[in-house]
């Protein structure tokens, strides 16, 4: 295994990509410690409890939001712009046409996504500056505008950084930035556990139980992330001139978790919104309602699971066009054995996708709510081990490993993955 891993360092191109990616990670981590001018960071840190939307955003930013640094908004506006563009591609005919034009069409969509990122980032920065006005030393309009422009510039720089990693580094740059932000919180979690053990709050058995559950969750996530239903497809033979084409067999891989981590992000944002609003509103009934949606309450947990199931079906239905898949298969002479081409094929694929999406949505719901029970069983409070972070870290790690494996196989007959 060590000799196979050494193949990575022997390839000059791959070694340069890895070094470039690590240098970009260093730039990202340095930026999380550069504060926005005119803000009292001590006041900001008091707002970051485990039950609000700021805690989720702080996780994605790698702690930059709690420090209110120039990267406080992280890459969240880009994610929102990408999701909006992905949904609009299904609704707007022009965007749908661009999506089918190959590389040129993707460049146009990417350009609009960049503009959307800047626009959404500025709006979010303005809202964040006004919402956190209590932490601004001199909350004049000019200072709020400067803070908003600084935060927008930080997000735009992160977007450029991610594109540079994608082009010159290894893996998807945007995903790797989020990955780096989440993993950077790991030392803090380990130190917190160490302090609990020293103080006698927990014992070694609690830590050992936590490690067993964590490893089991990681294995479970990998199994479901890699799980797919393979639909066999047979292509009929056809003669063009003097040559015969087709006659081969292949399959359509339908992933169990087609929606990824998006449903958890949607559900978290919806349920955490009332709690976050209550922090800035001094009205009794608003705080009472927000208490019902506090993190870990029975109502919040039940609604969280139901919303994840709903958003999984919604996002899968919007982003996956079963009818186009069946039509393209029919145009190229492909058919599923035992199923007629056209509408019967689309109905069959839709029925299969509905069933495996149910399994995927239940999996996402279990992963999302399991940390609530992990804290109660192991008595480890204040150590974040959420489903969102776990899915992102495992998913990005698997995708990056596959890209490294592909680059190694280009130079050697054998890679490093078994």
UniProtKB/TrEMBL annotation:
It is a multi-pass membrane protein. Its main location: membrane. The chain crosses the membrane at residues 20-48, 68-92, 112-132, 144-162, 174-198, 204-224, 261-281, 301-322, 356-377, 383-401. SUPFAM superfamilies: Preprotein translocase SecY subunit. InterPro entries: SecY, SecY/SEC61-alpha, SecY_CS, SecY_dom_sf. PROSITE patterns: SECY_1 (PS00755), SECY_2 (PS00756). It is found in: Cell membrane; Membrane. Keywords: Cell membrane, Membrane, Protein transport, Translocation, Transmembrane, Transmembrane helix, Transport. Belongs to the SecY/SEC61-alpha family. Component of the Sec protein translocase complex. Heterotrimer consisting of SecY, SecE and SecG subunits. The heterotrimers can form oligomers, although 1 heterotrimer is thought to be able to translocate proteins. Interacts with the ribosome. Interacts with SecDF, and other proteins may be involved. Interacts with SecA. The central subunit of the protein translocation channel SecYEG. Consists of two halves formed by TMs 1-5 and 6-10. These two domains form a lateral gate at the front which open onto the bilayer between TMs 2 and 7, and are clamped together by SecE at the back. The channel is closed by both a pore ring composed of hydrophobic SecY resides and a short helix (helix 2A) on the extracellular side of the membrane which forms a plug. The plug probably moves laterally to allow the channel to open. The ring and the pore may move independently. This is Protein translocase subunit SecY.
């Amino acid at each position: 295994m060590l000799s196979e891993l050494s193949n990575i360092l022997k390839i000059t191109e791959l070694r340069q990509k890895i070094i470039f990616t690590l240098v970009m990670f260093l730039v990202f981590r340095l930026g999380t410690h550069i504060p926005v001018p005119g803000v009292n960071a001590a006041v900001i840190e008091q707002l970051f409890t485990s039950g609000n939307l700021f805690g989720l955003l702080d996780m994605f930013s790698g702690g930059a939001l709690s420090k209110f640094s120039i990267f406080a908004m992280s890459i969240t506006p880009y994610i929102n712009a990408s999701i909006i563009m992905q949904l609009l591609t299904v609704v707007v005919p022009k965007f749908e046409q661009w999506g089918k034009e190959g590389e040129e069409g993707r460049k146009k969509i990417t350009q609009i996504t960049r503009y959307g990122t800047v626009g959404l980032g500025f709006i979010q920065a303005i809202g964040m500056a006004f919402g956190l006005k209590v932490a601004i030393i001199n909350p004049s309009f000019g200072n709020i505008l400067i803070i908003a422009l600084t935060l927008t510039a930080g997000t735009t720089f992160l977007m450029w950084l991610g594109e540079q990693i994608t082009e010159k580094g290894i893996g998807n740059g945007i995903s790797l930035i989020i990955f780096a932000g989440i993993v950077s919180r790991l030392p803090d979690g380990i130190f917190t556990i160490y302090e609990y053990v020293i103080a006698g709050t927990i014992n070694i058995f609690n830590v050992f139980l936590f490690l067993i559950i964590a490893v089991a969750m990681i294995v479970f996530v990998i199994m479901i992330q890699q799980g797919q239903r393979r639909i066999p497809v047979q292509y009929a033979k056809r003669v063009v001139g003097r040559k015969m084409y087709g006659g081969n067999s292949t399959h359509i891989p339908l992933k169990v978790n087609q929606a990824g981590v998006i449903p958890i992000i949607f559900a978290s944002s919806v349920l955490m919104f009332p709690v976050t609003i209550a922090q800035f509103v001094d009205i009794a009934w608003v705080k009472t309602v927000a208490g019902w949606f506090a993190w870990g309450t029975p109502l919040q947990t039940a609604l969280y699971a139901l919303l994840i199931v709903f958003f999984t079906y919604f996002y899968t239905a919007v982003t996956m066009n079963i009818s186009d898949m069946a039509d393209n298969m029919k145009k190229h002479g492909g058919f599923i054995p035992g199923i007629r081409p056209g509408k019967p094929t689309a109905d069959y694929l839709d029925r299969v996708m509905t069933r495996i999406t149910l399994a995927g949505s239940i999996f996402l719901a279990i992963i999302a709510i399991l940390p609530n029970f992990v804290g109660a069983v192991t008595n480890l409070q204040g150590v974040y081990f959420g489903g969102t972070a776990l899915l992102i870290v495992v998913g990005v790690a698997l995708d990056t490993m596959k890209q490294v494996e592909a680059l190694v196989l280009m130079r050697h007959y054998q890679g490093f993955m078994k």
